[in-house]
Write a structure and sequence with these properties.
alpha+beta, five-stranded antiparallel beta sheet, 4 helices, 25% helix
Length: 163
């Protein structure tokens, strides 16, 4: 009987301490893109995961990436493909340069103008129903925010990034 209470306590403790709003990076990416569309003419149709090792536009890579197909809201045609990397709650757009990759971080802002770059952290502390903005909204708060850089992506992908 005492073991049952102990096990229940551990399960509740683990669930309570879990800080992730989404179970997978794919869910995080999908929610972020649909919760803050950069172009209201397009919606996410599907997201495909490419597991490492793989190839992105003829460059051999050893990290996972996602292909997102967007569909036109006007004529239901798949009209746009974009590629993303999700790393520790941060989302990066993936492109190709000459024999190297171009990686740019995705940012969003909340309605008060706060810069959001770690989406997993943001959604674990805020409602997933809050819509994020793709551009900084006009606010009375003119405080400049310094983004805390994480080096985990640069170390992992440094040999692929255009110099």
């Amino acid at each position: 009987m005492q073991n049952k209470f102990y096990i229940i306590f551990i399960v509740i403790f683990i669930i309570g301490c879990s800080n992730k709003a989404f179970d997978t990076d794919k869910e995080l990416l999908n929610h972020t893109l649909t919760n803050s569309p950069s172009d209201p003419k397009y919606s996410v149709k599907n997201i495909t995961l490419y597991n490492a090792p793989s190839e992105f536009k003829k460059i051999k890579i050893d990290f996972d990436f996602y292909q997102v197909n967007f569909i036109s809201n006007e004529n239901n045609d798949v009209s746009q493909m974009q590629y993303f990397i999700v790393n520790n709650g941060e989302i990066y757009r993936l492109g190709k340069g000459q024999e190297c990759l171009i990686i740019s971080q995705e940012f969003r802002w909340n309605e008060k103008g706060k810069l959001i770059y770690n989406f997993d952290d943001w959604y674990s502390k805020n409602s997933t129903e809050i819509k994020l903005q793709t551009s900084k909204p006009k606010t009375n708060n003119n405080v400049f925010q310094n983004k805390q850089k994480t080096n985990s992506l640069a170390d992992k992908l440094n040999k692929f990034i255009c110099k």
